[in-house]
Amino acid sequence: MPRSAIRKVAPIILLAFVVSSCATMKQTYGDNPKAMLGGLLGAGLGAGIAAAAGASPAMIVGAALMGGALGGVVGHKLDDRDKQMAAQAATQAFEQNAAGQASVWKNAQTGNSGSITPTRTYQQNGQYCRQYQQTINIGGEPQSSYGTACRQADGTWAIQPA
Question: Global pTM?
Fold first, then answer.
């Protein structure tokens, strides 16, 4: 299947997965919005990475499923302070850090920690964008992800869909 066709089909497959899995996620995580959001973001990231790598549609679906499961677990285990600290580290990294320079955070109450490292800066459609690598340690288990954030007109950074 040509790469352009994969890029058109992947969002449809992902949307079908998300819609069909919402009830299951709700039951599994007990109305936990952190778990649901983590699952959705993980599924999108997994599918996006697979599609960008030129994977087959079956591999894209598999990556979405794996990313969704991993993202749900991570979202379920992070408390509000963890998320706040991770967001502050991300803002600092996107605004101030050179490529390769990490911003780190650690919540002494939960023991969770993480880092976010910009890997590339570029302009796209008049916006500054930064590719990054993020690692979150929950209970000593590191979970890594990659993505792109672009500065919005109001100065905030928005994670871009894969």
Answer: 0.54
